[in-house]
Here is the input.
Amino acid sequence: MNSDPHQQYLEDPEANAAHLAECEDCRALAESLESPIPALQSSVARELPLAAWEGASYRSWPLVVAGAIAVGVIAALLFAATGSSPLEIIRGKVPSTDVIASMVRLTSGAVQNAPVSLQFGIVVAFLIVNGIFIALLRRAPRGIDV
Here is the structure.
């Protein structure tokens, strides 16, 4: 068994708390471990800033309203261009699933029969967009530790 009182205190401080009254070195060590960290005492790091969902005052509702208005205007323009109204679509002037399936088949055939330069452009655009996504995902997030 280990008879060194310093080692016994370091192994089990709660069971050997009486050792602190006898040893100045162990008391200084215990006080240094219990003292608060000075960096956390500063006024700068006392509170984190509020995020938008935690009650910060900035709200992006004007952007949401503007987006909804833009979607409504685009829908109205498309209805005007086709010469129909939303009521006609509700009444049943929606194309059947066979018509929609044939349109999908024609679209896929159009891409296959497109010129090689267009197919090459689609592949290059796909790679560029995915490269941008990967670069954005690998970038360090901007937060409080900037």
Observations:
- Residues 5-35 form one domain.
- The first helix runs from residue 5 to 11.
- The two ends are 52 Å apart (CA to CA).
